[in-house]
UniProtKB/TrEMBL annotation:
<dbReference type="InterPro" id="IPR017761">
    <property type="entry name" value="Laccase"/>
</dbReference>
<dbReference type="InterPro" id="IPR034289">
    <property type="entry name" value="CuRO_3_LCC"/>
</dbReference>
<comment type="similarity">
    <text>Belongs to the multicopper oxidase family.</text>
</comment>
<feature type="domain" description="Plastocyanin-like">
    <location>
        <begin position="136"/>
        <end position="287"/>
    </location>
</feature>
<keyword id="KW-0439">Lignin degradation</keyword>
<dbReference type="GO" id="GO:0005507">
    <property type="term" value="F:copper ion binding"/>
</dbReference>
<keyword id="KW-0964">Secreted</keyword>
<keyword id="KW-0052">Apoplast</keyword>
<dbReference type="InterPro" id="IPR045087">
    <property type="entry name" value="Cu-oxidase_fam"/>
</dbReference>
<dbReference type="GO" id="GO:0046274">
    <property type="term" value="P:lignin catabolic process"/>
</dbReference>
<dbReference type="GO" id="GO:0048046">
    <property type="term" value="C:apoplast"/>
</dbReference>
<comment type="function">
    <text>Lignin degradation and detoxification of lignin-derived products.</text>
</comment>
<keyword id="KW-0479">Metal-binding</keyword>
<feature type="domain" description="Plastocyanin-like">
    <location>
        <begin position="386"/>
        <end position="519"/>
    </location>
</feature>
<dbReference type="Pfam" id="PF00394">
    <property type="entry name" value="Cu-oxidase"/>
</dbReference>
<keyword id="KW-0186">Copper</keyword>
<keyword id="KW-0677">Repeat</keyword>
Amino acid sequence: CRVRRYKFNVVMKNVTRLCTTKPIVTVNGQFPGPTLYAREDDNVIVEVVNNVQYNVTIHWHGIRQIRTGWADGPAYITQCPIPPGQRYAHNFTITKQRGTLLWHAHVLWLRATVHGAIVVLPKLNVPYPFQPPDKEVVIILGEWWNSDVEAVINESMASGLAPNVSDAHTINGYPGLMSKCGSQDGSYLLRVHTGQKYLLRIINAALNEELFFRISGHRLTVVETDAIYTKPFETDTILVGPGQTTNVILSADRPAGRYMMTASTFLDTPIAVDNVTATATLHYTGSLSTDAVTFSNPPPVNATAVASSFIDSLRSMNSPEYPARVPETVDHSLLFVVGMGVNPCNACSSGIKVLADINNVSFVLPSVALLQAHYYNVSGVFTDDFPGRPPTRFDYTGNNTVAGLGTTTGTKVYRVKYNETVQVVLQGTTFIAPENHPFHLHGFNFFAVARGIGNYDPEESPETFNLVDPIERNTAAVPSGGWIAIRFRADNPGVWFMHCHLEVHTTWGLKMAFLVDNGEDPDQSLMPPPSDLPTC
Ligand code: C2O
């Protein structure tokens, strides 16, 4: 175990994409940002220095932060933002995790450009559970916005309506040759040698879209998702939701040449979509940059069957070394109905305001961080009456109309005792439009024990639960017009955010938090806050 120190300097940087140059918020002037490398059991200290005009926080997405919630990063949940000109050192230890994760800004919409990879290597002398690759490569999928993202979200909040979508997807920062500026922007090129194996660490850092990724002519072997090893399986297309990561092995075993990589939207609902496919090139040694690039079409935007078959193939490794510890019993069985709503809004130019809610509560960020309020017993910041059930049961995925949807607002948490087990069924609805909701839980990994289309049935649905080798991850999608069931053990004291990782839905209120009390032993309690923790 060793200490790894990083300095993240948040600065503006002029970047040119889609033939336009504009200043964006970056870490250390890089887009995407720097990769953070560590080994399992390392102590990581990242000093974030805010040199921009915005308030900033950084979240280490998927790092469990056991007893160190102060370092987690979501603004007003675990910390107050770092004001311009200030700094904050995040100090945490990475335990029982190895693989690929991501870090990103967790305030406003800054994560559009403020994100990067976290690579957690196994402990020294502990091998991968698969044949060691010849080389490892980070591939970050993202988006590019011609306008300033903060302006995009501010406009949307002022009008009450949905924001504009981004102007292109990106692979390692570049839209690629199919974008309107094509080669003028440059594009990402991965050079490979015939016969070698590559571990691709693929991250979806996009704000608002689940993405299909494929490499023309090649099969990919999935070996890990969200820093948990999986049972390996082969596929030609992977699906990565925002906040998710997937490690695959690529064998350079095709005739030497050039092959197109694509990142394209998956969205099985008819709403505004950025469908510019990002491309990059796989280039075998010995081919020429003038050689034609082999291209196969990405799946269509509504390829639900492709998405489902990928998700259904994911299984935890569940080996003696890497067991799947699925909670067999549950202390809290919750049903969270995830909906969209419309409320009247006098201050909005459209007269209405789109909201999103869980069990009819649209979450309002407090002005003091919840974790601080909890630790110092500050009253009046939140209440612990988050409803574990919807107010009424009805046909969630039927032919619902918007009429009569009055969503309430509040800052409510759901409280559990240390080490209790929690099952949450996340039920999608058809209000406004059915949509996928990639849900992320901070502070834990959960097991995605089942998913289904239509309404969850408390009698029949539990029979389909996989309690043996379900996939373990930190982000999983509620299917459009359907549900998922997740389970986790609350073995991490603190306040932990859970939200849809489509940033627009988070902004609309599709979020809540779990409060986990300290356990009885001293090593089961939240550590004291660091002295440089920002205050509100
Ligand atoms: Cu990656 Cu709360 O987010």
